[in-house]
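look at this fold:
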Amino acid sequence: MWETFSTTGRSPHVCLNVGPTVRIAFGTSLRDLSTTGRSPHVSRSLLFAWAIPYYHFGTRVTYTANDKWSLAGIVVNGWNNVADNNQGKTVGGQAVIKPTPKFTFTQNYIVGKEQPGSNDVRHLVDSVAVVDVTPKLSLMGNYDYGMDRLSGNRVRWQGFAAYGRVTPISKFKISPRIEWFDDPQGFSTGTAQTLKEGTLTAEVVLNEGMFVRGEYRYDWSDRRVFERNDKGVLSHQTAGLNAYRHLQQR
């Protein structure tokens, strides 16, 4: 059967279910290379911002063998574009393995020519492991490694993120996150640097379809890439507050 849906209007795509095991999607997607499910934080992670594409446009085919493993492949126009900027396509694969109900491992790999007027090939490896330690404690680790060429020279970037999700009491959740991102040639961020961040998010569930989140975040770098009082500084602090309301589709 056909399905049409959009994630908050940002990733419209159309899906076709071919039997109970195969799903074909076509359109714009934010979800192929990201942490599983909806983020528990107000702000996006460093890895989402700098290590992987924000979105891409193309086709994705998913085969779900059973509740323990699935495979997927994508053919898209490239990184962060709808219209391709060159003559090459980007392809990728994903394997999701769930040997036990409490552990899930996802391995992604995408490769393709991403720069206009260049035959250089970009590679990205993205690994995600999720462990549900108890019904009230979940842990996740995410590692990304990418490489490309710029003016004939090899450029690389990599990062690691560790997440937690704690539910000490009903309707209250705490989600810490800590990250490290290395961009030695400045290919991703525009400055050769090593970035780090720590985030703590608290969530209060008001009812079945609504919750409020408050967040504190601290970012720091080995270069003065942040700005305070018109001067470059090594660190930056932010706070955020969001309210979410889920609207059920009818």
User: Anything to note?
Assistant: The helical segments are 46-51. The CA atoms of residues 38 and 226 lie 28 Å apart.
